[in-house]
Design goal:
Elements (H helix, E strand, L loop, with lengths): L9 H16 L11 E6 L2 E6 L2 E5 L14 H24 L3 E13 L15 E13 L3 H14 L1 H7 L16
Length: about 180
């Protein structure tokens, strides 16, 4: 007896994906802007918010934080893993693949020489140099279909794509001096 899929609204998702793909084919709806805000709260604790959701980001006590939440790098890894899982759910629904289990463990390897001021700016040594995604999935589908599915998820995951390519960052500061 086949196990129940963990994507319980697959028909609805399939319809949404088919419509979105058709729109993107004609150049409509293929771009989006996401927003988030952060505020340094106290010490190293940061309150992040997006679409009305709140998340505390912090460093562990061993790095001077209060350990009230994941650190920024862990949030990036969680975002990439969540993006991969959501991409998998969306394409599984579109392709009619009943997933019964989907888990991703991520490891990000950092080069912190740039953060500590011990790298030339042209070396680009601030941030992840490698991210490893260990994925475990169970689905009731033929192996060839699952191989095609895996390629689609890895090619189309926005989180993976964002880490793979250079991203332009524009910084706009407004600084007010409060000293007399």
């Amino acid at each position: 007896m086949p196990r129940t899929t963990i994507i319980d609204n697959a028909e609805e998702i399939e319809e949404i994906m088919a419509g979105a793909i058709a729109q993107a084919e004609h150049g409509a709806g293929a771009r989006a802007v996401h927003r988030a805000s952060v505020r340094l709260d106290r010490g190293l604790t940061v309150e992040a918010s997006a679409r009305g959701f709140r998340l505390l980001v912090d460093e562990p006590e061993s790095f001077g934080g209060a350990n009230t939440g994941p650190n920024p790098e862990e949030v990036v890894l969680a975002g990439v893993g969540a993006c991969q899982a959501i991409t998998a759910a969306l394409y599984a629904a579109l392709m009619g693949i009943p997933i019964t289990r989907y888990e991703v463990d991520l490891r990000g390897y950092l080069d912190l020489r740039g953060f500590y001021g011990h790298a030339r700016p042209d070396e680009g040594l601030t941030g992840f140099t490698r991210v490893v995604c260990d994925t475990r999935m169970e689905a009731d589908a033929p192996a060839e279909e699952l191989e095609r599915f895996q390629r689609l998820v890895e090619e189309r995951c926005v989180g993976h794509g964002t880490l793979r390519q250079p991203v332009e960052i524009e910084s706009n500061w407004q600084i007010t001096s409060t000293s007399s």
